[in-house]
Amino acid sequence: MSNSNGAATATHIAQAGLLSKERIVAGPGFNRWLVPPAALAIHLCIGMAYGFSVFWLPLSKALGITDAATCPADMGFFARIVSASCDWKISELQWMYTLFFVLLGCSAALWGGWLERAGPRKAGVVSALCWCGGLVISALGIHLHQIWLLWLGSGVIGGIGLGLGYISPVSTLIKWFPDRRGMATGMAIMGFGGGAMIGSPLADALMRHFAGPASVGVMETFLVMAALYFVFMMAGAFGYRVPPSGWTPAGWSAPTASANAMITAHHVHVSKVWGIPQFWLLWGVLCLNVSAGIGVIGMASPMLQEVFGGRLIGVDAGFGSLDTAQLAAIAAIAAGFTGLLSLFNIGGRFFWASMSDKLGRKNTYSVFFVLGIALYAAAPWAGKVGGSALFVGIFCVILSMYGGGFATIPAYLADLFGTQMVGAIHGRLLTAWATAGILGPVVVGYMREYQLGLGVPPSQVYNTTMYILAGMLVLGLICNLLVRPVAARHFMTAQELAAEKQLAHEKVGSNGGVALDAAQLAQVGHGGNPLLVVLAWLAVGVPMLWGIWVTLQKAFVLFH
């Protein structure tokens, strides 16, 4: 009987499409450590969204090349977006950045359920087509000098690719690493934080290569990066595998309710999460943690320069009293500060997510909030009397927890809502990120302008902002402390779970049981060709090491 079932299963898989979920169910001998590099391959590419600011200045001179071709003062908004005779403002180009993260949250929420059923390979391919296709459309927009094509290409279509690519590995990694949920998702989401670390210097080098008397080099750079990213992302998408139903790591068993009430063995359907209080508490937790951190990221460079002014170079003078050469010197130091923050943002994603496997997700977030409140409250004092080293150290820790919050939240969701539809639930939760992407920068930017308008010295304009951000973390702490295990009535029944697994094309029998026998399941997740594992990790590790080296060189100026 088992032989006939196996033959039928093999026939069904052979008839399935190349991108279907049935084709990527892992068999005996597949090593689970091949999955994180596949996820990193996609996240390192789409993470370049963080680095798009490298294109703003060149694109603002796309026609004038050396100086911007200014639009007439009386030209209206709609005339500007279709004009091919004058250059774009940086504020207009920055709409791409806003659209990235709004569309990321919306697409992840809308298509998260489809992803769970279609599988990570199909989602990864669609992500590659959208992200890289968006870059090609943007290149066309530069060629025709139509900014709306950049908004449509990179902003809207690319933003959809961001959302699908971001959540594509989450559910798969959690199912492959139930024993190390935090570490597994931390590895992938670390890649999203590191994408700009690789992409920005690469884009800068390409623009310098292609720049000439008739071009700033951005169009050509977009086309080259689209091709490179497409190859890398497709390799990642085709590297995805999902574990067969019923598989668990050797020697691991699911925690019992008595051992850890915060980790469930049951599963919530994505359609029910809008009505579950714990979902909205975690929505607030993520939104408030990200709002505080993302506001700092956007203002890191001017903040350091305005708070310390000439003290950064040993001159007892405020920011407004410095000459051109001194301003250039402290700008270089501030660029190093920004680079250092990016390293802590990336490292924090892996460190804190891995620590959450030991501390627990709720305790880890409590550390974020309690420590963050203390650090934000101490920042004004550090800026006044503590010296730049202490100030820099405070924000490095803050940014590590900002990144750690992103990397820890998928495992937190899996603990509370189960693993069956955690990718789709994570997608809906990312609407909190879209909200924070507006809230955080608005709070920091508005308060800065408001304080300057009141005549507050530049060295003190961020003090009130720091206390406001600390207050936001207090609210986040309250949300986190209110999180309790999900009530039993919200979980799927055994019949509903079996039906969902069938819809998700999991390798199950007609009665919902596993199609692989125990001996076959025991051979899944380990073994295989060790050289293949090494090569997969080198493919993503070498670019990351190069990006870290370039960033460290920029940050080195802080210590001189």
From TrEMBL:
InterPro entries: MFS (IPR011701), MFS_dom (IPR020846), MFS_trans_sf (IPR036259), Proton-linked_MCT (IPR050327). The chain crosses the membrane at residues 33-57, 95-114, 123-142, 148-170, 182-202, 279-304, 324-344, 365-383, 389-413, 425-446, 466-483, 531-552. SUPFAM superfamilies: MFS general substrate transporter. Keywords: Membrane, Transmembrane, Transmembrane helix. Residues 53-488 form the Major facilitator superfamily (MFS) profile domain. It comes from the Bacteria. GO terms for molecular function: transmembrane transporter activity. PANTHER family: MAJOR FACILITATOR SUPERFAMILY (MFS) PROFILE DOMAIN-CONTAINING PROTEIN-RELATED (PTHR11360:SF317), MONOCARBOXYLATE TRANSPORTER (PTHR11360). This is Integral membrane transporter.
